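To illustrate the input format used throughout this study, we show a single complete record. The first block contains the structure-token representation of the backbone; no residue identities are included at this stage. The design step must infer an amino acid for every position from geometry alone.
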């Protein structure tokens, strides 16, 4: 888990850069730049917010604005269940957004400081998830081995007690 801590700290630190002024500016955008939409789409995916659907498109900007307007917007990001991101969602984020050269905090900062902070949060979550998925099987194996060790110790103790009883009968 020590490998995960830096990524988790980066995610939290990224949210600390958000200001209400920067968020307010982003909320006033009627048709934001593509990079801002990308960042907020990843947030909608993580928060499981459905897109606004029309006959021809799916748009995440309307649900993004609703989410940005929540008083506890930043707290919801801070309290996000980082350990329970579904594989399908993180895979979509990796393939569709993170692989895009424009999904870069330096580029996004030119469009919005709030989006830059949120982008850093998303990237840190993705790194955290990647490390977590590598260590989870190892953690599970440790748990299984500990259970097996306890069972073996209990069996050893039974055998030792049985042996002691036999030894006492001999003398």
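Output of the design step:
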């Amino acid at each position: 888990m020590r490998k995960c801590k830096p990524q988790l700290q980066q995610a939290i630190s990224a949210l600390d850069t958000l200001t209400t002024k920067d968020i307010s500016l982003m909320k006033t955008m009627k048709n934001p730049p593509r990079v801002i939409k990308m960042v907020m789409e990843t947030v909608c995916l993580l928060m499981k917010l459905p897109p606004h659907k029309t006959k021809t498109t799916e748009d995440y900007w309307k649900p993004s604005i609703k989410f940005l307007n929540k008083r506890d917007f930043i707290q919801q990001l801070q309290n996000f269940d980082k350990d329970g991101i579904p594989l399908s969602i993180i895979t979509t984020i990796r393939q569709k957004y993170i692989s895009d050269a424009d999904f870069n905090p330096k580029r996004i900062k030119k469009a919005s400081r709030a989006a830059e902070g949120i982008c850093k949060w998303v990237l840190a979550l993705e790194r955290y998830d990647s490390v977590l998925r590598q260590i989870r099987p190892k953690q599970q194996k440790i748990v299984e081995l500990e259970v097996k060790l306890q069972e073996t110790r209990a069996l050893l103790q039974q055998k030792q007690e049985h042996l002691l009883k036999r030894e006492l009968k001999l003398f």
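Structural context for interpreting the output: The first strand starts at residue 52 and ends at 53. The radius of gyration is 25 Å.
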